[in-house]
# Entry
Amino acid sequence: MDKYKSIDAQLVGGNKDTGFTASQIYYLTHQILKLTSHLESHSGDYSSQRGLRKLLGRRRRLLIYLSDENAALYTKVVKNLGIRGLKGR
# Structure
């Protein structure tokens, strides 16, 4: 958990602006990790599976937006969060 707080501080630069695209990607990644760990022990929870798919889609759309607007920040976010980049971008 401390790792993600430090990543958030690096991405946002200490500013807690939750409307910032990098911040939204950070918080979605945190929620995705929590849901993934929940689904490892509760594999039949289909409502949570649907929620996870929705969060993944939202994060993907934000990553597409960020890669189009600011490629340098996009690569920094992907590298710091340890997530896969977009295919073909």
